[in-house]
Amino acid sequence: MGAHVRRGRRALTASRAGTGADAQRFRQVLGHFATGVTVIAGLDGAEPVGFACQAFAALSLDPPLVLCCPARTSATWPRLARSGRFCANVLAAEQRELARRFGVSGPDKFADVAWSPDPHGLPILAGVLTWASCAVETVHEAGDHYVVIASVTSLGDSVAGDPLLFYRGRFTLSAAPDDHSPPEVVDTLLAWPRFADWL
Predict the structure, then answer these.
(1) What DSSP line would sit under 97-162, residue for residue?
(2) What's the pLDDT tens digit per position in 39-83?
(3) What are the pLDDT digits (tens) for 96-123?
C-alpha cells in the first residue's frame, strides 16, 4: 500500500460487535444513522478503479483531512491504495444506480461511466455534487475495516442538488424511506461478505 498500515494500541476486532443476534442488532442500530454516499476512485496504473463508500467524513479543518473506511476484504482498495491517492466523489440523489455499480465487486465498474480527471488524473464522476482529491497519510487496521486518513489536496466546485443518502438499508433522499421498498443489495451499514467493496 502507499501508506503504512498501523495497528491500534488496543486490538479492535469484529467480535466486539458480538455474533448472531448481537451482530444483527448492531447492524440494525447503526443502520439508523443516515449517511451520504461517495465513490472513492483512483488509478491502478492507467486503469480507473473505485468503490462505493458511506464511511467517509471530514476529520480536520487545519490541516484539511478526511477519512474513509474500506473493508479489509475489499478487492478494490489494495489496487487503489498503491498510488497513495484517491478522489472522493459525493453522489447526487439521481445516482443510485452508480452507487449500486460501485457497491459490489466487478471486473470493470467504469465501463460506460463518464468521468474526467482531477488535477492528479484521478476520476471525477460525471454528475456528482462535488469532489475532493486526497493523498493518503496513514492507514489503521480497525476490526474488519481500515481507517484511511488522507490530506485534501484539491476541491471541486459544488453544484445544486440533493445528496444520495443511505438509511436503514435503502438509498433515499431523506431519513424517511418507503418501508415497503426492497432493501438495497448492500442492505446494511456494514458490508456483507459477498459485497466486499461496499463501505
Answers:
(1) HHHHHHTS--S-TTTT--EEE-TTS-EEETT-SEEEEEEEEEEEEETTEEEEEEEEEEEPPP-SSP
(2) 999 999 999 999 999 899 999 999 999 999 999 999 999 999 999
(3) 999 999 988 877 899 999 999 999 999 9
Entry pTM: 0.78
Cβ atoms of residues 64 and 152 within 8 Å: yes
According to DSSP, the β-strands at 115-117 and 170-172 are: unpaired
Contact 171, 99 (CB under 8 A): yes
- Of the two residues 167 and 47, the one the predictor is more confident about is 47
Distance CA(99)–CA(199), nearest Å, equals 11
Q: Which domains does the chain have, with CATH numbers?
A: 5-172 (2.30.110.10)
Report the C-alpha gap between 165 and 196 in whole angstroms. Answer: 20
Which amino acid is located at 9 in the chain?
R
Residue owning grid cell 491517492: 85
